[in-house]
Amino acid sequence: MTHLIFVGEKRSKRAKLLGVYWQDEALAAKPLFAALRACGVEPTECTFVNWFDERSHSAIRIAAALGARVFAMGKKVQHALTEAKISFTPLVHPAARGSIRKRERYIAHVREQLLGVIAPFKETADD
């Protein structure tokens, strides 16, 4: 499978207070990881970074040039990656408000965005 990089905006105040990161599967990572697993993607095999917190811009650019698929979570990150001329697939941020917060809807959104990016695409019993 192609390497997948998920790019968020920045660590939230709550995440900093709790001392958690994307890899801890807490806060916004929880619905994202559930959606990825429902799509047959193991989150531990993906990379998660925050565009405005980390100095990973060149690493993301290089990884994308080498074939990694970049997913931009949220409008600010999508705008920043467009400005940086980094190709990406847009994703609604897992902490977004509204109807997308429903587990089934977020999983469906992630599945739709992953189609054509990963192969073979696996269906799982979590649907």
Quick synopsis:
The protein is 36% helix and 13% strand. The protein is of the alpha/beta class and 127 residues long.
Describe the SSE topology:
Blueprint: E1 4-8, H1 13-18, H2 29-38, E2 47-50, H3 57-65, E3 69-73, H4 75-83, E4 89-91, H5 103-114
Parallel strand pairs: 1-2, 1-3, 3-4
Helix pairs in contact: 2-5
Can you characterise this structure?
The chain has 127 residues and is of the alpha/beta class. Helix content is 36%, strand content 13%. It has helices spanning 13-18, 29-38, 57-65, 75-83, 103-114, and strands at residues 4-8, 47-50, 69-73, 89-91. The protein has a four-stranded parallel beta sheet with strand order 2-1-3-4. α4 (75-83) links the parallel β3 (69-73) and β4 (89-91). α2 packs across α5 (103-114). The longest helix is centred in the last third of the chain and has 12 residues, at 103-114.
